[in-house]
Amino acid sequence: MKKISLYIISFFLQGILCVLFKTNKWKIVGEENFKKAVTSDRPIFLCTWHSRFLYAVYFLKIRKTPNLWAISSTHQDSQIMAYFLKRSYFNLIRGSSTRGWDNVIKTMFKVFQNSSSIIAITNDGPKGPPYIAKDGSYKIAKRANAQIISIFGGSTKFWEIKSWDKLRLPKPFGTIYLEFSSPMDYSDDTSDNADMLTSFLNSHLSALENKIK
Alpha-carbon distance 9 to 47, whole Å? Predict the structure, then answer.
């Protein structure tokens, strides 16, 4: 019964989000970076922060991006987002840093073996701390020789949820900016920590925010 209720809630929330996003104008920057990466012979690790993931999900949904994967927690309360992602053309890798992480690692390596695969992830999620990338997935992406590209969205009018990540939702009748970066050059990074990725993502988020102002 609860599973049915969660599905209905997710469907209702998706409808609200579609209205919010569709009533905004869109300005897309750097999509050529993403298109070029898609045509290469390397998989893609598409990165954003948890506070901005809804912008990325909606854009990838309307583009019907193929070979797209996302990590989804196995916690029951996360099922709402899992339903939403499935209806947004995402394949799901189930697990989290606290439950089923071994399965996530194995599946990510398997997915990355296909050069056309795209794994999209919130690098500070699901519980933060915000704007600090986790080491694990970065290490996997490097070993799989994946192209690391940031995708960030922001809007001229928005609500900010009082949560750990300060999740943003666009208000109607504004302008949404969405930007893809060029692939990150990590060839000189010999460490397994994600400090370089954190700096990369935060610099691109700051650049986007300056465009919106």
Answer: 27
